[in-house]
């Protein structure tokens, strides 16, 4: 039936996937529900639903994703698989948020295709080389920052794959949720309701003699403290942190009680990510990165001036060499000018990564 919730849900998902959307939002308003899809970071109004139709739709989504249909007063999370025309496989992560007399619903669309390699992620190959250089010592903490959907988890997966191809490492991941099933690594699903927190998972993982640990997110003081303690004992730890850049990451870690000595000697790098829509191939994106290594982190800790290859410089470089359109360049610059201000001149040679895709 064309007016059934399942028919609408399937058609909406297929259309979102065709447009390379990463998220779908159902946002209640005065008399109706607005449906938004996020494409390349931009939230676009897709359609509107009546309140009655949305009630039927959210009940359907709750049922098929394992949520409690009758619960409207508490936030819920669910998951379900989706097959696009019987070919590509996706994992859908759903979450509800209780509002006055109704709920909102958000759906994250996670492709389950083969994870891209590290060499395929970044627009400029020299940034891949710098990222690899950070891991030569095999110990310490490397943090990735950036907004939701900027490629943090994808980059961590690719970095782990890269490490495992070079060395016979024991790699363990702690994730909430597990976004993609990976070979040659042990993936642990964090389940706080069952008592398996990030901290509890870390303690258990250390008994499996890991060489490298990936923590989906450092959320609180206890996880941060244990992650740094793990790195101090000779392990490599890779994780994400909600911060704008390296300076913001250091501020957050200080707030979490991490000692200056650990920030100085254990934090080996902070990589802030941004995705750019590139001109070819069509509908693909490539990452650029603001990377602070241990030397630059030391300067930030001491409040010394230090120079970075900023997003503003990298975007100008990408535009100058035709990797992004003028329209996309102006849009990205407009979003970031208040943060970065006027950028210095960028290097005069370009080495584009023809394999970049995200």
Write up what this structure looks like.
Helix 1 packs across helix 2 and helix 10 (311-320) packs antiparallel against helix 11 (326-340). It contains eleven helices and 13 strands. It has helices spanning 5-18, 51-64, 125-134, 152-166, 198-206, 221-232, 246-255, 260-265, 294-301, 311-320, 326-340, and strands at residues 21-28, 32-39, 42-50, 76-84, 88-99, 102-111, 140-145, 171-175, 186-189, 212-215, 236-240, 267-277, 285-293. It has two domains: 5-111, 2-Layer Sandwich (Beta-Lactamase); 118-340, P-loop containing nucleotide triphosphate hydrolases (Rossmann fold, 3-Layer(aba) Sandwich), CATH 3.40.50. Helix 6 (221-232) links the parallel strand 10 (212-215) and strand 11. The model is unreliable at 338-351 (pLDDT under 50). The strands form two sheets. Strands 9-8-10-11-7-12-13 form a seven-stranded mixed sheet, sandwiched between helices. Strands 3-2-1-6-5-4 form a six-stranded antiparallel sheet, with helices on one face. It is α/β, with parallel strands linked by helices.
Spell out the blueprint of helices and strands.
Elements: H1 5-18, E1 21-28, E2 32-39, E3 42-50, H2 51-64, E4 76-84, E5 88-99, E6 102-111, H3 125-134, E7 140-145, H4 152-166, E8 171-175, E9 186-189, H5 198-206, E10 212-215, H6 221-232, E11 236-240, H7 246-255, H8 260-265, E12 267-277, E13 285-293, H9 294-301, H10 311-320, H11 326-340
Parallel strand pairs: 7-11, 7-12, 8-9, 8-10, 10-11
Antiparallel strand pairs: 1-2, 1-6, 2-3, 4-5, 5-6, 12-13
């Amino acid at each position: 039936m064309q007016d059934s919730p399942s028919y609408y849900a399937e058609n909406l998902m297929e259309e979102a996937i065709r447009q390379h959307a990463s998220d779908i939002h159902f946002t209640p308003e005065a008399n109706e529900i607005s449906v938004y899809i996020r494409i390349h970071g931009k939230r676009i109004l897709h359609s509107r639903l009546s309140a009655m139709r949305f009630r039927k739709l959210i009940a359907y989504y709750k049922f098929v994703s394992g949520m409690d249909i009758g619960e409207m007063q508490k936030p819920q999370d669910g998951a379900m698989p989706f097959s696009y025309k019987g070919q590509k496989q996706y994992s859908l992560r759903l979450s509800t948020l209780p509002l006055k007399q109704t709920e909102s619903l958000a759906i994250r669309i996670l492709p389950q295709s083969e994870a891209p390699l590290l060499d395929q992620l970044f627009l400029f190959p020299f940034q891949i080389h710098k990222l690899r250089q950070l891991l030569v010592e095999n110990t310490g903490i490397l943090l990735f920052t950036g907004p939701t959907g900027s490629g943090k988890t994808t980059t961590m997966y690719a970095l782990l794959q890269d490490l495992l191809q070079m060395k016979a490492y024991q790699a363990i991941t702690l994730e909430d949720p597990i976004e993609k099933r990976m070979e040659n690594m042990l993936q642990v699903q964090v389940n706080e309701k069952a008592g398996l927190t990030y901290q509890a998972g870390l303690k258990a993982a250390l008994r499996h003699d890991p060489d490298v640990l990936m923590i989906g997110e450092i959320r609180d003081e206890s996880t941060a403290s244990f992650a740094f303690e793990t790195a101090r004992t000779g392990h490599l730890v890779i994780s994400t942190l909600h911060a704008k850049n390296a300076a913001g990451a250091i501020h957050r870690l200080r707030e979490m009680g991490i000692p200056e000595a650990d920030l100085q000697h254990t934090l080996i790098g902070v990589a802030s990510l941004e995705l750019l829509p590139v001109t070819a191939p069509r509908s693909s994106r490539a990452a650029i990165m603001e990377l602070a290594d241990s030397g630059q982190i030391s300067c930030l800790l001491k409040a010394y001036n230090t120079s970075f290859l900023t997003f503003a410089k990298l975007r100008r470089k990408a535009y100058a060499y035709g990797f992004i359109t003028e329209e996309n360049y102006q849009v990205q610059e407009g979003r970031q000018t208040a943060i970065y201000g006027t950028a210095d001149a960028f290097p005069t040679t370009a080495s584009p990564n023809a394999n970049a895709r995200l």
